[in-house]
Design brief:
By secondary structure, the protein is mostly helical. Helix content is about 80%, strand content about 0%. It has one domain. The longest helix is centred in the middle third of the chain and has 24 residues.
Length: about 120
């Protein structure tokens, strides 16, 4: 059974994993874009793929090493924030920027809360 209080405190981890999935989709989409140069494909695929891997690895690390996991999650969603900035002409992608900023803010806030307060 899921502890409802714990879920309310860590909703942003689920959002970070969803953003990681979107980053992978975005990286594959750019990789398949015929108008992108080889360098653009390599850079975008590498940065967005690495960001997704960091976010997922950070979410996996959180139960044992909360601060390190939070830092990895926050760092991993930075490409999701950049996605909305790059595609400013497509308003639905602004949601990735807003969600990414919410994840970063929440991970920083969670990292500064003492462990005994966060679990009680």
């Amino acid at each position: 059974m899921i502890n409802e209080t714990l879920f309310k405190q860590t909703w942003w981890v689920t959002l970070a994993v969803v953003l990681a999935g979107l980053q992978i989709v975005f990286a594959i989409g750019i990789g398949m874009d015929s108008e992108a140069s080889g360098t653009e494909r390599l850079v975008v695929f590498s940065v967005w793929g690495a960001g997704a891997a960091l976010a997922i690895f950070g979410a996996q690390q959180r139960p044992r090493h909360r601060r390190r996991g939070n830092a990895l999650v926050a760092l991993g969603v930075v490409p999701a924030v950049i996605t909305g900035i790059i595609a400013f002409w497509f308003p639905p992608l602004w949601l990735t920027t807003a969600a990414g900023l919410a994840v970063i803010w929440s991970s920083i806030r969670d990292a500064t809360v003492p462990a005994d307060v966060a679990t009680s």
